[in-house]
Design a protein that fits this description.
Helix content is 77%, strand content 0%. It is built from 4 helices and no strands. It has helices at residues 2-32, 39-65, 71-94, 99-124. The chain is elongated and about 50 Å long.
Length: 141
Amino acid sequence: MANMLFYAHSGLRFLVLLTAVLAIGVLLWGWSSRRPFDRQSRAIVAVFGGVLDLQVTLGVILVLVRPWYGQLMGHLMMMIAAAFAAHGLSVYGRKQADPRKAHMISLIGVALALLLIVGGIMAIRDNPFQMNVGSGVMSTE
């Protein structure tokens, strides 16, 4: 069970990274074209937030069921900070009357979350796209 959760959590990071890049693209496009902060912008930010929440939830469950090692503290704190940045700035952005400001604030939230995510992955792996187990991971098999 723990290994299945580990592989789901490890694989889901690619969807998190993909939705972050898509959200950045949509928000940049909305900001540069002065489009209203409409359903498309709100939807991509919500999808990114939802996938990130699922990833954080799986990560917290993994912390409870797998052996602890030192790098997990940095990883866990960075990921929780990423979720707070993504959600907090998207909520603040949605409340803006100016659509350019709404796009920019949401864009900053997604970009900050993406930077924190990459930093959190780097806390346990050599690079964000590495597929093998990180250096501090202990096997439960």
